[in-house]
Design a protein that fits this description.
By secondary structure, the protein is α/β, with parallel strands linked by helices. The chain has three domains: about 1-30 and about 305-385, no CATH class; about 55-305, no CATH class; about 395-605, Nucleotide cyclase, GGDEF domain (Alpha-Beta Plaits, 2-Layer Sandwich). The protein is about 45% helix and about 25% strand. The protein has 18 helices and 24 strands. Strands 17, 18, 19, 20, 21, 22, 23 and 24 form an eight-stranded mixed beta sheet that branches. Strands 1, 2, 3, 4, 5, 11 and 12 form a seven-stranded mixed beta sheet that branches. The protein has a three-stranded mixed beta sheet with strand order 6-13-14. Helix 1 runs antiparallel to helix 10. The protein is rod-shaped, with a radius of gyration of 46 Å.
C-alpha cells in the first residue's frame, strides 16, 4: 500500500504542489499584501509625462503672494480683484477655477457681495466644495447596512456665491499606500443629489465657453475612476503668483481662452499630496485638479480590469509555470521566466495604450519569478541529493576522475544498462589463502585478507582504476571506462606491478607474526567489454562483462604466486616500456582457441 501511494505521489505530486502554490499566491494577492509594491510598478509602467499645451494655467497662492498680501486666508476681495483683473482682458479666460473653500458668510459682508458680483459678471467661475465622509447606518425596506462612505457633511459656497458661480467637490481619496491614483467623479449629497467634481465642472465650462464638444464621462466604479496623469509638480505652474494678478504685473490677455486655476501653492498651506506620476515629490492639490481637467480634455479613460478575472488568470499562469519549472534545467527555465514576465509587461502596456485596460503589472512577474527562484533552489537541492546518492554508491570504488563523470550523469548513472568500451581489466587473487584459512582462526584470517585487499585497493586507486568488486579473496578492477583515460593499459600494469612489489613487504610482516605468508597471482587483459549497471532495479552492480573480462580472470587463475600474466594485446600496447616473457600457448585458457599467446610481465619501465 505504501509503495502504491509513493507511485501515485511520484505521478501526481507535482500537480498537487502546483495547485497548492497557486492557491497560496492567489490568497496573497487577495489579502492586499502586494498592493503597495504593485502600485509602484504599475505607476512606473502606466504613468508617463505628457507635454501640456498651455491651455491650463495654475496661478499659485505661493510664498510670494503670502509675503506680499499677508497670511492666508485673505479677505475675499483679494481673489475677487484677481478674478476681475483676469476678466478685464478683451477675450476672457474660458474658465477660472478657485480651489478655495468659501463656506458661509465672512466677517466682511461687502467682500462677500463683491466676490459674488464679480463671479456673476464673469459667468466663467467655478468654486470649490467639499464633502466629509464617514460611517453611517442606512435603513431600507429590505433591512439595514453600514455605509462606510456616507456623506456626513457637505461644505458648499455661501448662498450668493453658489448662485453666481458653478461649483464642484474637491475631494480626493488616496490608496492604502497614500498615493492618489483615483478620482471621485461625483459625491452623492443627501437632499441635493450628485455633485460632480471640481475638475469636471471646470472642464465642462471650458468646453462650453470655447465651443468645444464635451467628452463623455469616464467609466466609474461607485464614483471612482482611474486617473491618467499628464505631468507632475510644476507642470502647469509658470511662476505666476496671485500677487502678480493682484498688482497687475502680468498681461491678462495671456489667459485668454484658457482654464485658469487658482489655489494653494505653498508648503505652509498643507495642500500637498503624493500622486501616481511622482511618488517622491509632493504635488499641490490645484495641480491635481489641473491634471484632471486635462484628463477630461484628452478623453482617454483607462479602466481597471476585474480583480476576480485577474486572480483567475494569475491562478492559471502560476499552475502552468510551476509545472514548466518543475525538474527543468536552468537555461530553459530562465528563457521561460523572461518570456512570460517580459511578455506580460508588454501585454499590460499594449492593452493600456490600445484599450485603456489597467492590469496589476506586478502580480504575474512577481509570482513567476518566485516560482523560478524556488525551482532553481529545489533543483539545486535535488541535484545535491543525487550527487550524494551517487557518491555514496560509487565513492568507495572509483577514481575521482571517474566519480566526476558519474556525478555529471546524475541519477542516470544509477539506471540499468551499459555501453561498450575498450578497457584494461585486472584480476588479482591471493595464492595460498585456502591453506592459510585452514590453519588459522577465522578472525586472524579476516585480518590478513583485509590487509591484502587494502593493499590491492590502494594500488588500484593510486593508478586511477575503477575497483569493480571483491569476490572472496579476489579483486577485480578496470580502466578506461566510463571515462576515457590516456594509457589505460600502462596504468593497469603499473597497478599490478605495485601489488607484486608491496605484497613482498606485507608477506614478510605476516610471516613474522603468524608464520604464514601468501602472494598474488595477477592477470591483465585489454579489449572490448560492456560497462554499466548490470542486474535488476532493486539490486545492481556497476561492472564490466564480456570475453575480455573472462580472459583476464582466466589469466589470473593460471598465474603463479608473485607473477603477472598478460595477453599479447597488452604486451603490444606496452611495447618497449616493458620486459616480458612469452609462454606461447603452453597454458590453455578455457574458451580460447589454439595459439592464444600468454606472457609474463617481468619489468615495467
Amino acid at each position: 500500500m505504501v509503495k502504491s501511494m509513493n507511485l501515485k505521489w511520484n505521478k501526481y505530486g507535482k500537480y498537487f504542489i502546483a495547485l497548492l502554490i497557486s492557491i497560496i499566491f492567489v490568497l496573497i494577492s487577495i489579502s492586499g499584501i502586494t498592493d503597495s509594491a504593485d502600485g509602484v510598478v504599475s505607476d512606473a509602467i502606466y504613468q508617463k509625462r505628457i507635454a501640456t499645451d498651455g491651455q491650463i494655467v495654475v496661478v499659485g497662492i505661493d510664498q510670494k503672494a503670502l509675503d506680499a498680501l499677508g497670511p492666508f486666508p485673505w479677505s475675499r476681495s483679494v481673489i475677487a480683484d484677481c478674478v476681475s483683473y483676469l476678466n478685464s482682458a478683451q477675450e476672457k479666460p474660458a474658465v477660472i477655477g478657485l480651489d478655495i473653500l468659501y463656506v458661509g458668510e465672512s466677517a466682511d459682508p461687502d467682500a462677500d457681495d463683491y466676490l459674488a458680483a464679480v463671479c456673476e459678471n464673469g459667468q466663467n467661475v467655478v468654486v470649490a466644495s467639499a464633502a466629509t465622509f464617514g460611517s453611517e447606518l442606512q435603513i431600507e425596506d429590505a433591512g439595514f447596512y453600514m455605509d462606510e462612505r456616507a456623506v456626513l457633511a457637505f461644505d458648499e459656497p455661501y448662498d450668493q456665491l453658489k448662485a453666481a458661480a458653478g461649483y464642484g467637490h474637491i475631494n480626493t481619496m488616496a490608496d492604502s499606500d497614500g498615493i492618489i491614483r483615483h478620482g471621485i467623479l461625483y459625491v452623492d449629497v443627501p437632499g441635493e443629489g450628485k455633485v460632480y467634481s471640481f475638475s469636471r465642472t471646470i472642464y465642462e465650462k471650458f468646453c462650453e465657453n470655447n465651443g468645444i464638444e464635451k467628452n463623455p464621462l469616464p467609466k466609474e466604479n461607485d464614483g471612482f475612476f482611474y486617473i491618467s496623469y499628464f505631468t507632475n509638480a510644476g507642470g502647469y505652474y509658470d511662476f505666476i503668483s496671485v500677487a502678480d494678478l493682484y498688482y497687475g504685473e502680468v498681461d491678462p490677455e495671456f489667459f485668454s481662452g484658457k482654464a485658469v486655476l487658482i489655489g494653494p501653492y505653498a508648503a505652509g498651506l498643507q495642500d500637498e499630496y503624493r500622486t501616481a506620476i511622482d511618488h517622491a515629490a509632493p504635488t499641490y492639490g490645484v495641480e491635481i485638479q489641473a491634471n484632471l481637467v486635462d484628463f477630461f480634455r484628452r478623453g482617454f479613460y483607462p479602466s481597471e480590469a476585474s480583480r476576480n478575472v485577474q486572480l483567475i488568470i494569475l491562478f492559471i499562469i502560476c499552475i502552468v509555470m510551476c509545472l514548466f519549472f518543475y525538474d527543468r534545467n536552468v537555461i530553459p527555465s530562465i528563457i521561460g521566466e523572461v518570456l512570460v514576465c517580459g511578455g506580460y509587461i508588454l501585454l499590460c502596456l499594449l492593452l493600456y495604450k490600445t484599450s485603456g485596460i489597467v492590469l496589476h503589472v506586478l502580480w504575474i512577474p512577481l509570482f513567476v519569478s518566485i516560482l523560478f527562484i524556488g525551482s532553481v533552489a529545489m533543483n539545486y537541492i535535488k541535484a545535491a541529493r543525487e550527487r550524494k546518492k551517487v557518491t555514496n554508491t560509487f565513492g568507495k570504488y572509483v577514481d575521482p576522475a571517474v566519480m566526476k563523470q558519474l556525478l555529471e550523469q546524475g541519477e542516470s548513472a544509477l539506471e540499468l544498462g551499459g555501453k561498450t568500451y575498450d578497457i584494461a581489466v585486472l584480476f588479482v587473487d591471493v595464492r595460498g589463502f585456502t591453506t592459510m584459512s585452514e590453519a588459522l582462526d577465522p578472525p586472524t584470517v579476516v585480518e590478513i585478507i583485509n590487509q591484502y585487499l587494502t593493499l590491492t585497493t590502494e594500488c588500484i586507486m593510486k593508478n586511477h582504476g575503477t575497483l569493480d568488486k571483491f569476490v572472496g579473496d579476489c579483486t577485480m578492477a578496470f580502466w578506461n571506462a566510463p571515462v576515457a583515460q590516456d594509457d589505460a593499459v600502462y596504468m593497469a600494469c603499473r597497478a599490478a606491478m605495485d601489488m607484486v612489489e608491496e605484497s613482498i613487504a606485507l608477506g614478510e610482516k605476516l610471516n613474522e607474526r603468524f608464520g604464514r605468508s601468501v602472494s598474488f597471482g595477477i592477470g591483465v587483459n585489454y579489449g572490448p567489454a560492456v560497462v554499466g549497471n548490470i542486474g535488476a532495479p532493486l539490486r545492481m552492480d556497476y561492472t564490466a562483462i564480456g570475453d575480455t573480462v573472462n580472459t583476464a580472470a582466466r589469466l589470473e587463475a593460471n598465474a603463479p604466486g608473485g607473477k603477472i600474466l598478460i595477453s599479447r594485446a597488452v604486451a603490444d600496447i606496452l611495447g618497449d616500456r616493458a620486459e616480458v616473457t612469452s609462454l606461447g600457448d603452453s597454458i590453455k585458457l578455457k574458451g580460447k582457441a589454439e595459439g592464444f599467446e600468454i606472457l609474463t610481465l617481468d619489468v615495467l619501465k
